[in-house]
Amino acid sequence: GLKFTAYTQQTNGLDFDDIQSIAQDADGLLWLMGPANKSSITLFNPVSGTAVSFEKRFNKPRPSTFWRDPQVLLGSPDGTIFFANYKPATLTSYHPRSGLQEVALPQYKSLTLAALTARNTVWAIANRTQLIELTPDGRVLQSFHHETTISVCLGQRNAGIEFFYVKTGTPSLSKAQLYRIDGAGQRQELPISLIPSMKEGFPPVCYPFDRTGLVWDGSQLRSSTKGTLLDLQNQLAGQLIHPRCFFADKNGWMWLGTSFGVYQVKVAQNYFHRLFYEPANAVENTPAVRGINVI
């Protein structure tokens, strides 16, 4: 059968129970990033079940953060961990062989990591308005400037796309814009209509579903030319979804961590024809009713 084990602040000595991101180093230790407004880091040994704080392990203060731009931990295939200090802007990496390496970026006032590429480069947001690509030693490969703040969408590398990000709009400037960065580091603007979840909460989910340009936004499969191809919103029982994280596993399941719990979805070829569907009513506590027929 299945075994489920919970590791908590109370029973295992974690510094927090609210975990925002996880990465694993070359020694197998799990690096856990805490609440968005604190950016605390705990190193957890999954074999022994023991934990130690970043401050105690390295005798250094935890990285600084800004509540609107939460920090993340990124892990490379060789087990290198990357994270940033918000102010002063610093790119930090760790590998058991080389230890903790810090690279100051004095040309920027602030720094938040966005994504780690297959080419071993790091995308980051500098000064809240610039998207920059960095080498691990801090060399800037390219930079995209924007007149308003930018944020990276929740998602994952797939189908030749590294990630999506949005430029927020203001009444006095242009409206919100959506961009994607591909595996070669090229940028392309896309219709903002691809992620209607922008209207409901931030950050939006934007996962490159396949190489045809389809995008999964957490509950809808959308196309820039054909609109919504699949919509699961009426099956959410009226719950208001606040996305926290997104993960697509190797078996094709897509996992969405929310303020309400975890949603699991797998999009596959449909061998059934829906005759009717009546969504659940959360207020009256009535279940959803479905009718299907094999075709």
Protein architecture, described:
Strands 1-2-3-4 form a 4-stranded antiparallel sheet. It has a 4-stranded antiparallel sheet with strand order 5-6-7-8, with no helix packed on it. The chain is mostly beta strands. It is built from 2 helices and 25 strands. Strand 2 (30-33) and strand 3 (41-45) form a beta hairpin.
Set out the fold topology.
Elements lengths: L8 H4 L8 E4 L5 E4 L7 E5 L4 E4 H5 L15 E2 L5 E5 L4 E6 L3 E6 L6 E6 L5 E5 L3 E5 L5 E6 L4 E3 L8 E7 L9 E6 L4 E4 L16 E2 L6 E2 L3 E4 L3 E5 L11 E6 L5 E5 L3 E4 L6 E7 L10 E6 L1
Antiparallel strand pairs: 1-2, 2-3, 3-4, 5-6, 6-7, 7-8, 9-10, 10-11, 11-12, 13-14, 14-15, 15-16, 17-18, 18-19, 19-20, 21-22, 22-23, 24-25
Please tag this protein with its features:
2 helices; 4-stranded antiparallel beta sheet; 40% strand; mainly beta; 25 strands; disordered C terminus
Q: Can you give the mean pLDDT?
A: 83
Number of helices: 2
| Percentage beta strand | 35-45%
Q: State the helicity in percent bands.
A: under 10%
Uncertain spans, ≥5 residues at pLDDT below 50?
A: 289-295
Describe the structure concisely.
The protein is mainly beta.
